Every structure is written in structure tokens, then in C-alpha cells.
Amino acid sequence: MHTALCDTLGIEHPIIGFTPSEHVAAAISKAGGLGVLGCVRFNDADELDRVLDWMDEHTGGRPYGVDVVMPAKVPTEGTQVDLDKLIPEEHKAFVERTLKDLGVPELPEDAEQRAGVLGWLHSVARSHVEVALRHPIKLIANALGSPPVDVIEQAHAHGVPVAALAGKAEHARRHVRNGVDFVVAQGYEAGGHTGEIGSMVLLPEIVDAVDAPVLAAGGIGSGRQVAAALALGAAGVWTGSLWLATEEYLQTMPASAAMQTALVRATSSDTVRTRIYTGKPARLLKTRWTQAWAAPDAPEPLPMPLQNLLVSPAHNRLHETNDPELVSMPAGQIIGRIDRVRPVAEIIEDLLSGYEEALARLEKTR
């Protein structure tokens, strides 16, 4: 499994793996892919710097990248206190009432506080870029489309290419006009922020629309699906949900065992696309929490980043319950393929062998 993307990024296989876990990202890179560390969890740029130092030491000299989040719409700045004033009291009351109805207790004093809204602000995302460019990264991706042109130019000045997610061909064309190097065609099946067009339709549309390498995202969890993506014109694949149920993920986030239990139990029907996580449409694991927000008395989700500010404390409490029916987590429809917790290297091996088997089947049809 080798494409021109491998030569460009210095990797063995055209498999890019997005993850909020540095342990998973490092393992993907060491297995021959490109691990991309999600930075949104870092409110503190110094903490990100320390984690990237760890990545430098634990990737064996293999390439890795980072993913930042730069929302395009106001409000994008201000302190958490300033933004909190913009949240309606009825929304706060609904969250508290829902947590009570679900039997979710307050956090214990020694509980870990996960990052909240600040990681979604332009100012914080820019600090992430500045920190990342002090390290030997090979890619910067923006999860919400094109970063500002000056950020793209800043990355290029350091010799680092930029990737941006697109849910429509028009988005992809705009990204390339802005200077983006790689377009991630993210289909409806994908976890997290995703559009309304399925991957089988979206990918060839974007490949035909732009003169730039396109990465396929959404619904990719086997070697057969990698082969299909490359057959449709992709230069490589962008994977995310596949890495949630890995042994390495627990090294970064030990409290995620309940989430992994929920993923192993889930089918491909057990996700929902909703704005309740960040304010923009995102695909989540379906739980009692998501069902509460779908009830007739639930308020409309707030715009980004206010929705994330509203629900982040609730997510901390939900995760602390260790209840698989309550955890709140972005996840794509590919979770239906997850049947156990595995090491990253084993998943990479399965992708490679499944790809070869798919090619062999096709060869028999000639």
C-alpha cells in the first residue's frame, strides 16, 4: 500500500490517524502511518508543548502531525467568564435538570477536569500552531475548514503542509484557493464534525473538483474500504473513530474504559448527528445524554463555541460515572466494526492485509 502521499509525508502507508491521544498518535506513526494529535483538549499551550516533546521522544523519528480547531464565526475570543455570560439561563437549567434526571452526581474534588471551551477559540488555536511549529511536525490540519490565510502562510514558511476538512466540493475548491495542500473529504458517516453527503458520492466529487491530493474520511475501518477509497481517487485515508478502542488510548485517558465498552457494544446504527456537542453538526455515540437533547422540551443548541462551553462540565461528570450508557463521545458509523479493544499495530496490520486481499479479489475478476 503506497501512494505519492507516502513520499510527500515520509510515511510507509497512506494511512493518517487522527486522535486526541499522544500514545495512539505515536503508535500510528511507529506502525508506518501518520499519527495526527488533536490539540483542542489543550487549553494551555505549555501543556501542548510538553506533550509534543513526548511525541518527539516516542515516535522513533517517524513523522507526525497536529490537528487544530479554528471556528470561523464570532464569538471567537474572550475569556471563559466573558463567554459564559452569553449562555441563556434556560440552557444552563436544562443541563442541570438533565444531569439530575440521569442520576449523574457532582464531580469529586480530586476528579480530572477535561479541557473545555478555550481550545475552540482562534487565539488558543493560533497558540497551538505556534507551539507545534517549534516541533518537527509534518502536517497541520484544521478540523473546521480552511485556517486563516496567514496561518497557512506561517505553516508553509516552516515547510509544513496544511490539510482542511471538506463536506462539499465547493468547500474543497475554497480550501485550495486559500492555499491548503491536502483536502480531507469527510463523508456523512464520519465521527465528529461532518456534512450531509455520503463518502461514496463525496469523494469522487472532490477528487474531480480540485488539483490537490484528497484524503478519504468517513466509514473507513478495513482494508477493503481503504482499497475502495484509493479506487475512487483518494491519495490516502483519514481515520479517527477506528483508534478510540485501542489499548494505547487508555494510556492517555485511563477514565475512558466505559467509552470503550460502549463502542464495543455499539452497532453502526448507534450514532446520531447533532449540534449538541459543539454547536456545529457532529456525529456522536448515541446515549441517554443525546436522547435527552432530542426530547421535545430540550432547547436548541447554541452556536459554537457557546454550546461546548455549556456542556463541557456536564461531559466531565458523565465520563466520571463510568457508565457506558452516559458517556458523550464523537464517533462515526464505522464503530459497528469495533468488536474488542486492540493495540494500534494490530489494526494497522489488519488494514494492510485486508487491502491486499481486496486487490487479490479484484484481480480474479479481470
From TrEMBL:
Asked whether the UniProt record includes Oxidoreductase among its keywords, one would answer yes
**Lineage top rank: taxon:** Bacteria
Q: Does the keyword Flavoprotein apply?
A: yes
- GO MF: monooxygenase activity
Pfam families assigned to the protein according to its UniProt record, in alphabetical order: NMO (PF03060)
Record's keyword terms, sorted: Flavoprotein, FMN, Monooxygenase, Oxidoreductase
Per the UniProt entry, what species is this protein from, by scientific name?
Amycolatopsis dongchuanensis
- Please give the name of this protein: Nitronate monooxygenase family protein
